[in-house]
Amino acid sequence: VQLQASGGGLVQAxxxxxxxxxxxxxxxxxxxxxxxxxxPGKEREFVTVISRGGSITYYADxxxxxxxxxxxxxxxxxxxxxNSLKPEDTAVYYCAARRGLISSVPKSVVTSKVGYxxxxxxxxxxxxx
Length: 129
Description:
This protein is mainly beta. Helix content is about 5%, strand content about 45%. It is built from one helix and eleven strands; from the N terminus they run βββββββββαββ. It is globular and about 40 Å long. The mean pLDDT is about 95.
């Protein structure tokens, strides 16, 4: 599956953005999709993931309660709604896909980069203070 992330931009602290991850291919519903982010000089880190059917989601503690992941399999798209943005959310955001059931994999693995085979190109999110 090929992924393309979009929706990034410049926003003031406290504002909102919605990112989209559009996928090609007819097997999109076979993949769990995650969002990761990478700030300058830092490692790429997990943000959130959603299961194939959308019933299971995990979030990093740093975004819990502020970010919401969702998906529309009919449109081959995953969304990341980001509210109450903070300057520390500034990063390039990437979406990535992994096959299989995330419920059958340890959470510690699902929330790492392990197993994510397809990555989008990234979209820049900048939050000004």
